[in-house]
Design goal:
The chain contains 13 helices and 14 strands. By secondary structure, it is of the alpha/beta class. It has an eight-stranded mixed beta sheet with strand order 3-4-2-1-5-6-7-8, sandwiched between helices. It has a six-stranded parallel beta sheet with strand order 11-10-9-12-13-14, with helices on both faces. Strand 9, helix 6 and strand 10 form a beta-alpha-beta unit. Helix 1 packs across helix 13 and helix 10 packs across helix 13. The longest helix is centred in the C-terminal third of the chain and has 31 residues. The chain is globular, with a radius of gyration of 21 Å.
Length: 359
């Protein structure tokens, strides 16, 4: 018996994969991971129990140009599945699931987990129908945000698995922001959402008290650094790609987490990003957009600021939050949210253990 874990990116962008690996290891289950390096063309490489498929398909590429790389990834993925003779699969995100949906339904009915981490192409009816079939024929389907129920079918097979990694212990000390002379608002992760971040940059541009930081690999269509140079904006810093283990040091230099994605599509209005969990683990308040599920969570647990991007008084909102910042209350709110997350994670782990017991 052997499980294949199918990712749609490299390990660094899939922190939640550890939940699966930890359970498999503790139960002596044989498994292999299949990752996609979308930034380099090369032959498929295998190291230890990890395959990496190398086909360039960069975020921000023209959709038509993605068709051939997607097809190459699909063919290589199916080749590996056949070669390794996996008995069970874990499919991380819907796109690889849709790419190999016929194989999943024909050979792995009730022998795979579908793990949904974002909204992708569900606006197309044919895509939604395939996802519906994949959910119905899965052993169970994990979702990282209850906001996804807005576009997914009702199913008793759906459980919640949050995007919270296993690597970092919870930070106990909360920095008092009330009297800080310099405030850094940091965007940590793949740099995208160009228009939304340009608006934010313009609001805080060259204000001595504020600094914006963008840390991560940028999408092709999100040249914020070029925008800042063109407009002579000096109080913005840019750092490139980082490793997941670098996060504790990165967040030591950040006061607010930038989680502004706009509110114009289900892709952004329904998701709960990694930054939410970074915020409650590293005890940093989050800046989120009104009209999103993330905004609802931030408001419910009082773990940050909700802004309307069309408002002209965003700085006044931030200043008001800073003036009223209560270290003890913020810490309690973070812990309350983490308790709710842990309760849902326990139900997910229970489902995962049942899956393993049937392998």
């Amino acid at each position: 018996m052997k499980i294949g874990l199918i990712g749609f990116s490299t390990r660094n962008y899939i922190p939640y994969i550890e939940y699966y690996e930890n359970i498999f290891k503790s139960n002596n289950i044989s498994y292999e991971c299949i990752f996609w390096d979308r930034f380099n063309n090369d032959n498929t490489k295998k190291k230890s129990n990890e395959y990496t498929i190398h086909v360039v398909c960069k975020p921000g590429m023209n959709k038509l140009r993605k068709i051939f790389p997607m097809y190459k990834f699909k063919m290589e993925l199916e080749r590996i599945i056949e070669k390794e003779q996996y008995t069970h699969l874990v499919v991380l995100t819907t796109v690889p699931g849709v790419l190999i949906w016929k194989k999943l339904l024909a050979g792995f009915k009730n022998k795979y987990i579908l793990d949904i981490r974002d909204y992708s192409y569900e606006k197309y009816s044919w895509y939604r129908k395939i996802v519906e079939q994949l959910i119905a024929n899965s052993y169970f389907t994990a979702i990282s945000s209850n906001g996804f129920k807005a576009f997914l079918p009702e199913s008793d097979k759906i459980v919640t698995c949050h995007n919270i990694g296993c690597d970092f212990p919870e930070v106990k000390e909360v920095i008092d922001l009330k009297n800080k002379e310099k405030i850094t608002i940091g965007f940590v992760g793949g740099i995208r959402y160009f228009e939304e971040n340009c608006k934010l940059i313009n609001i805080f541009a060259n204000r001595p008290k504020y600094q914006l930081a963008y840390i991560g690999r940028k999408n092709l269509d999100c040249d914020l650094e070029g925008y800042c140079k063109k407009n002579n904006i000096k109080n913005i810093i840019f750092k490139g790609e980082f490793k997941n283990e670098d996060k504790p040091e990165i967040y030591k230099e950040i006061d607010f987490i930038n989680a502004i994605y706009g509110n114009t599509s289900l892709e952004v209005t329904t998701a709960l990003p990694n930054r939410l969990y970074d915020g409650v683990l590293f005890k940093k308040p989050i800046v989120a957009t009104k009209g999103t599920y993330l905004g609802e969570v931030v408001k419910k647990y009082e773990i940050g600021i909700i802004i309307n991007e069309s408002d002209n008084d965003i700085i006044a909102v931030v200043e008001n939050y800073l003036n009223k910042f209560n270290v003890k209350k913020f810490n309690e709110n973070c812990n309350k949210f983490l308790m709710e997350v842990n309760n849902e994670q326990e139900k997910y782990i229970e489902a995962l253990n049942l899956f393993v017991s049937n392998v």
